[in-house]
Amino acid sequence: MIGRDMSNTKKTVNEVPAGVKVILSAQNLHSPDVQGTSFELHKGEIFGFEGLIGAGRTEMIRILFGTDPKADGDIMLHGKKVKFKNPQDAIAKGIAYLSENRKRYGLVTNLSITDNTVLPSYDKLSNGIVINQKKCRTSTEHFVNLLRIKTLEIDQKAKNLSGGNQQGRPCQRLLKDAEIIIFDEPTRGIGIGSREEIYQSMQDLVEQGKSIILVSSDLTEILHL
After folding, report:
1. Which listed site, 47, 129, 173, 201, has its alpha carbon 20 to 30 Å from 221?
2. Range of 207's domain?
């Protein structure tokens, strides 16, 4: 289908060397949908949560990102206890979240590819109230090439992209400033070729020193990454 053999795809090597610091941890998180979850995420690691839809995976992530409140437990960032009252708090601390529902939470589908790419960065791409359009286009072109987004032009509306390329749009924004990136079902509903490209993008991110939490109902995907 995609012009190459996928049966022998090399498994990602993502073992954490001794002495690598824990960048994020959760201790005994509780909410109406989450019962006693604890874990540690190391710098440069892909950490996977696997389970069926409805098992509380997304609800746990929403607590980490400040979207839903927790009833009990602690979240530690760089060894210090933190409390995120809203997603803005989490974003300010270098945490990004790619939702499983990309059309509802990840994209503004009626805006262009460029607008979607630079949406969180207008403060860095403007001088007061004037937006530097040249910087916006340069930044967008950089990430389109980096993530191999297939588009005729960057002024195209996001809603006209394929499912796999739509999934790449939020990825562009995550590459900007985030230190910890949460991927919730990043490959659901996309083709095998686009899936492999997203896997490669995730591996590129950890090679840059970023840390990833991967949530998936696909056990093969979890074991691969």
Report:
1. 173
2. 22-224
Q: Provide the token pair at 223.
A: 């074991």
Could you read off the pLDDT of 160-209 as tens digits, one per residue?
666 555 554 445 455 557 899 999 988 877 777 778 878 888 888 888 88
- Where residue 166 sits, what CATH number does that domain have? 3.40.50.300
- Dist. CA 46–CA 203, nearest whole Å: 8
Radius of gyration of the chain from its Cα atoms, rounded to whole angstroms: 18
List CB contacts of 117: < 8 A, sequence separation 6 or more: 136, 139, 140, 143, 154, 169, 172, 173
Structure tokens, 89: 């708090």
pTM for the predicted model, two decimal places: 0.74
Residue with tokens 């201790």: 27
What amino acid is encoded at 25 in this protein? S
